[in-house]
Amino acid sequence: MRISVVFAIFVFVLFPFLASAISDDKPILGFSEKQLTAQRDLENKFDSSLNAENLREWMKRLSARPHHTSSPYDKDNADFLAGLFSSWGYETQIEQFKVLFPTPKTRVLELVAPETYKAELSEPTVSEDATSGQHNEQLPTYNAYSTDGDVTGELVYVNYGIPKDYEDLHLRGIDVKGKLVIARYGASWRGVKPKVAAEHGAIGCIIYSDPAGDGYRYGDVYPRGGYRNENSVQRGSVMDFTEHDGDPLTPFVGATENAKRLRRQDSSAITKIPVLPISYKDALPLLRALEGPVVPQEWRGDLPITYHIGPGPAKVHLKLEFNWDLVPIYDVVARMNGTTYPDEWIIRGNHHDAWVNGATDPLSGMVVLLEEARAISELAKAGYKPKRTIIFAGWDGEEQGLLGSTEWVEMHQDELRQKAVAYVNSDSNSRGFLDVAGSQTLEKFINQVSRDVEDPYKKISVQQRARAYKMMEGDPAAKKEARDREDLRLPALGSGSDYTPFLQFAGIAALNIGFGGEEEYGQYHSIYDSFDHYLRFMDPEFQYGVTLAKVGGRCVLRLANADVLPFEFTGFANDIGAYVTELKKLTEDMREETEIKNTMIQQKIFEAYFDPTKKFVVPEAQEPVPHLNFAPLENAAENLEQLAKDYQKEYSDAMKEEKVSAEKMQKLNSILMLSERALTRTEGLPGRPWFRHQIYAPGVYTGYAAKALPSVREAIEQKKWKAAEDQIKMVAETLDRFAEEVKKAKKQLD
Amino acid sequence: MRISVVFAIFVFVLFPFLASAISDDKPILGFSEKQLTAQRDLENKFDSSLNAENLREWMKRLSARPHHTSSPYDKDNADFLAGLFSSWGYETQIEQFKVLFPTPKTRVLELVAPETYKAELSEPTVSEDATSGQHNEQLPTYNAYSTDGDVTGELVYVNYGIPKDYEDLHLRGIDVKGKLVIARYGASWRGVKPKVAAEHGAIGCIIYSDPAGDGYRYGDVYPRGGYRNENSVQRGSVMDFTEHDGDPLTPFVGATENAKRLRRQDSSAITKIPVLPISYKDALPLLRALEGPVVPQEWRGDLPITYHIGPGPAKVHLKLEFNWDLVPIYDVVARMNGTTYPDEWIIRGNHHDAWVNGATDPLSGMVVLLEEARAISELAKAGYKPKRTIIFAGWDGEEQGLLGSTEWVEMHQDELRQKAVAYVNSDSNSRGFLDVAGSQTLEKFINQVSRDVEDPYKKISVQQRARAYKMMEGDPAAKKEARDREDLRLPALGSGSDYTPFLQFAGIAALNIGFGGEEEYGQYHSIYDSFDHYLRFMDPEFQYGVTLAKVGGRCVLRLANADVLPFEFTGFANDIGAYVTELKKLTEDMREETEIKNTMIQQKIFEAYFDPTKKFVVPEAQEPVPHLNFAPLENAAENLEQLAKDYQKEYSDAMKEEKVSAEKMQKLNSILMLSERALTRTEGLPGRPWFRHQIYAPGVYTGYAAKALPSVREAIEQKKWKAAEDQIKMVAETLDRFAEEVKKAKKQLD
Q1: Residue B324: in which H helix or E strand, if any?
Q2: How far is B161 from chain A (nearest CA, A)?
Q3: Could you give all domains of chain A from N- to C-terminal order, each with its CATH number?
Q4: pTM reported for the whole predicted model
Q5: Which of A362, A401, B500, B690 is exposed most, by the fewest CB atoms within 10 A?
Q6: Is B608 on the interface with A (CB under 8 A)?
Q7: Closest in A483, A596, A611 to B483, CB measured
Q8: At CA A85, angle to CA A669 and CA A462, rounded to 5?
């Protein structure tokens, strides 16, 4: 109701884009002209079967009680999901693993000087929110995989707590050794904050949600609006993912009942210092009690105070104790076997566990996946048989560290490496613009999918709407690219949801799909991520839920039915070329910046500039940035580009002539299916053995954000020049290996 | 005391810049080698006479009571200043004018719906501030030259209230007709806000000081720190300067007792709608009561709320009545006659009136000027005789609209146009970096002055320190320029202090000089701009006051004593060339943006992008930007560059040979003195008859900021293409006329 009071509803009568009306006459990658009509019909039938009311009902049912990992309602939901899949005719299993899942026993945070304040650490009931009062079942506010600890010390505000922030502190002559830090959420995966703090000698870490992050800066706070209110806390995992994802005690293998487990103290995944998330109501007295230098402008949040860095005089006491239990988790896996290629698997997944009630995260995506599965089962009842095997999965334990998906992938890794074609993930979904990232061998594929799905309100394709978004909201270069391209460049995947073990550990081509940008998203990982919140602020009519089902359904149905698997390599080669250019520019920019800075140091510009009444440290001169030999990468990229073009031409001819034998077709598909695996190396990335993909990885110090060509990029960023040159060769080799597969694929079409 | 608690005092031991140690062996523009040593000696004697204690004592005396225009203590201060000048041997006069100066009779601002709140409109006594309790003598918080009014209506938040903000409102389908607007201070001269609001049909205007402007965003608020607290209000004039500066009733002529006066209702200077400044404590209930769309991110300030635009449901009542009195003002003018060229005047000025106690604004500059005058009088007592006439001036009525300086310039305009060499202005001064702007024919001159004055704490030249600042704080292009140049490009003057009538009305070369950047400046135009505030947060040891006296003293002594007036034209020609390039780029950028926007409109990108639940208006397609003929300006700039080089060469030769006759020298100086006048036109700028300078003007819609080549620039910005081409020719003609003067100057040196 509220939404219509605050916002005048005002829908434009729109004409479709002249050049982008959705039409049924465009080719679809992987389908011969003969198959095209049948596939179009199938997709139309699929669409017409979709029903927003199902999404709403399932979300209401699944979010009715807190359902965090291993909670009673988590199990109940898993059973419910399995029941649905079974009722639709899928071969369904609940696969169970046993994982380390700490829950809080003691949580104390208090300001002990110069005045005292005891943090509340609680989220109160809100009368407009029917499930917010289920306090008995709610997990308290905390960070999973924080170590136990009982520490007292001076406080230092460290902004986002990323490495750059500590450089800024150093310039001001401030260190955090023996002190507690308070960082705001944002700019990195939250687990990076305690990791970096500990690396700098801090003894404890507090993370808070500044209103500048997802609070009143963006809109009214809950329940008046959808944004984070003063009491709301972002729970979340702080697992250190550097070495591996998934259960901390069973890296590389499935966490079965009898799996060989590390001792907890030997796990690299648990933080070195205690860490606790708090609300901005609890943060305010702490921040207000800080003195010392005023923060740099870009460090300040939106609290009505002057932000000071400290250290002190604010002194805090943080005490945390956890139950370090092994608990069961429940992955729901449902299968519809393929007829022609049963050993080629298309996997569509979303997690089902939440931090609390999780209407948005993850149920807004999970209910879409259910509707896709239901609609496909309707098609099957009407006689449809997929060529390839379709697997729908509802993962458990995602919130703690992608536990359910990772253990499942580790458990089945050999079979998956042989049989998986692609993994298509969703997580939260809401009103707005299509947001996709993934393996760029699927760039053309997903562009065709998004070209063929209509926005529910605008009556243009979701691709064109996403392109409009990029033209309006991107940085200048991105805006220009959006204007210059007809389709959308597919960004790479970092981490943050269940695609990670598939893509980065198992080398399976992956996509992550969802809508967003027009919601009021301030409930993340709080008790207010509820059905009531979703209905008012996320996607009240579930229209973007239905639209996501159209996107996800097309992904599954096209991958499952294609004559030739719809991988395409010219776009990928182009993306690789762009990454190489980017890395060269990064190096050039670093060289220029280093030269400028060194000259300024030599000319004593810093001394001249600094305020004489304030403490500053002159930065040290840096080693000059050498010229790196990018030739191996450039050659590999160009070689790949040529072979990709050759394959593409051969493919186009073959699809017109339809003369490839079934045997060759099978071989071709098999090569294509395995091609992404050629982008991995068994030894993984340097220092990150579990991350095997050589093209995509999350950054060690960003966590969520993708780093393309990660081994090279991070070596450059960390100024390890020898390693950079070694990795340039290594990645070039990997690309050459991949190019060989493309060549082999082409041969099948000769 | 507080400052040493908050900030650790930490002064670096510094080595001077290798290339920039202050030395006595560098040439000084305008001085033959023979004269150089004498001038250096004079300047050293001048320096050694300066005494920070004088500055402190005078500031204490002058700021002891409120001394706004025409107040008892304003007159008392004028008498005190005149007494000092007289006691030092200057021929001193108090010149009196009679000006329109409204003061408030009624000030009511109240929120009348949806709840009620009555604005306090008062600044309370602060116990740490000895003069803050002088409420009987303090002017209330108000905007001078607001019209009377009694209006009630819905409220709309308009950000800074500049034209761009109304475009953004239009895109959201919001207009302000019949409503009151609330704008935050910043981004423009305050008088622009009610002007633009009235142009858009608003019936009232409220201006408030957001903490993001000069409040807790930057540091602790007064009295803990120096920044604006919740009760503090920025008073200030809102006179409409479009047609002229100075007394609203006597444009173009001195406001003598019997001057012919406009009727008040015929003055263009008074606002069309009532306008009142308020504190953020008074603004908060109003802003909080707004609903409607959430503001764009760049519109939000630092109050702990979601900023909504409205209109309404907040409804406010604003009632203002003023005493529209004619009051006397007191300009203090002190003269030391020149021996060789008594009819060549060097004028050094600062205002003495304040909004309240005005320790910083204007006394921090005024006491420096006094000390310069005193030190020069000491030199005179020891036998020094300036070649040219030196005039020191303390203007009254600056705060209301440069009344004192403007009336004086208008009164003496004929004589000034004949005799004035240059006007050197100061206003507020504090710790930090030299900040200079002015006529670019003085670019080399002021660079040599700043090269020869040492920073009081850093022991490097103030020029090098300012250059370090630009390297650290500028935008990338400015940083690069600072690295690439040894000296500093002199920025152009806009408006905001008493140089305006000299430069822009009378065509007298002008400079504005001061230090700043390390103070805590949140007291502007409030009762807290006090001696106590100054001592803690501005320049506690008056060391930058003494340093400014060294800069100002050198300006005066060099201009007064030079063999050849130190105007230099190659730098000016280079600056003009840069402005022409800038205008071409501006036009190119506008063309590209228009093309992109029109294409996006045609492709319905805006419709595709907008949130369907919110109200938005698709922008209208714009007329394409034509190619303009910049050739006349380019030719004029190149011609000037060549002639400037010729003059420079001839000048250098002449100064070495010292063979120019006294008669030729006099002629040369006379040409140089009048050269700036050649940059003016009697009819003024289009629609702005009082602004005669064709190269520099304040922007009609920015007020403070300089617009170089204003007639061309504003025509382009306003898309008046025909006018732009006409003005290109007109300005080219003006530059040619100026170039002729340079040619004539050269001839004297042949």
Answers
A1: strand B315-336
A2: 20
A3: 2-98+328-561 (3.40.630.10), 100-326 (3.50.30.30), 570-747 (1.20.930.40)
A4: 0.94
A5: B690
A6: yes
A7: A596
A8: 60
